[in-house]
Amino acid sequence: MAKQFLFSVIIPIYNVEDYLSEALDSVINQTLGFKDNIKIILINDGSTDGSEKICLEYRERYPENIDYIYKENGGVSSARNMGIDRIETKYVTFLDPDDKWE
Q: What is the pTM of this model?
């Protein structure tokens, strides 16, 4: 049986290798308990930089908490919509990969 999380964080990704790790770490380091409460859904919208490598590294570190999907470039809205289709939690939010949570 799959683990049940309380929150989903959808992160659309397009050529953001310079910022992505900081954004992911900001979610992972939240005080409400990442491993028990948060599912990150990474949607790679056809990045041509090193974003995919970063996504795969984080998914390997946190396989229960991070889903990774690669799709052909279709824009941020199509990436977010693809993430919405994967939600299995009570709450959902979005985080742009060049932002971070304090």
A: 0.95
